[in-house]
């Protein structure tokens, strides 16, 4: 079968891209995919262009872009233009989100490192609801 005559079911398309069939259907409902041709029995039939589009969507998702961002990039891509320049604002936002998450994780690492040092030194604070005990389970400094 040549690329020009390639037809894929939703399941095969999903398998090729590494997502579920439901993801492909969801992308279609969200307008990221044009309505595919249907077989006589009503099954979706996708061609090589859909495979390329699905791979693009999946690559954007791996980068952490939202479906709305991906829709913007696809709209540019569908004109035949490269979506790289318009991707800048989406990528800058994503970099900001990643930077904030790194700061949060570094703070968590610091907190856990301090807790581990205290455990190793035998200088742990008494268990408190906010650090060791499940909520509402501290009685007199002890976990229930």
TrEMBL record:
<dbReference type="Pfam" id="PF13411">
    <property type="entry name" value="MerR_1"/>
</dbReference>
<keyword id="KW-0238">DNA-binding</keyword>
<dbReference type="InterPro" id="IPR047057">
    <property type="entry name" value="MerR_fam"/>
</dbReference>
<keyword id="KW-0804">Transcription</keyword>
<feature type="domain" description="HTH merR-type">
    <location>
        <begin position="7"/>
        <end position="76"/>
    </location>
</feature>
<keyword id="KW-0805">Transcription regulation</keyword>
<dbReference type="InterPro" id="IPR000551">
    <property type="entry name" value="MerR-type_HTH_dom"/>
</dbReference>
<dbReference type="InterPro" id="IPR009061">
    <property type="entry name" value="DNA-bd_dom_put_sf"/>
</dbReference>
<protein>
    <submittedName>
        <fullName>MerR family transcriptional regulator</fullName>
    </submittedName>
</protein>
């Amino acid at each position: 079968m040549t690329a020009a005559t390639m037809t894929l079911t939703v399941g095969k398309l999903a398998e090729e891209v590494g997502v579920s069939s439901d993801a492909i259907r969801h992308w279609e409902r969200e307008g990221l995919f044009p309505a595919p041709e249907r077989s006589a029995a009503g099954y979706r039939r996708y061609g090589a262009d859909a495979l390329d589009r699905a791979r693009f969507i999946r690559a954007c998702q791996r980068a952490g872009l939202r479906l709305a961002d991906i829709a913007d990039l696809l709209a540019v891509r569908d004109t035949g233009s490269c979506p790289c320049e318009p991707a800048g604002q989406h990528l800058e936002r994503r970099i900001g989100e990643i930077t904030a998450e790194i700061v949060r994780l570094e703070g968590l690492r610091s907190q856990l490192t301090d807790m581990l040092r205290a455990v190793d030194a035998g200088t742990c604070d008494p268990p408190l609801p906010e650090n060791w005990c499940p909520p509402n389970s501290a009685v007199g400094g002890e976990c229930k």
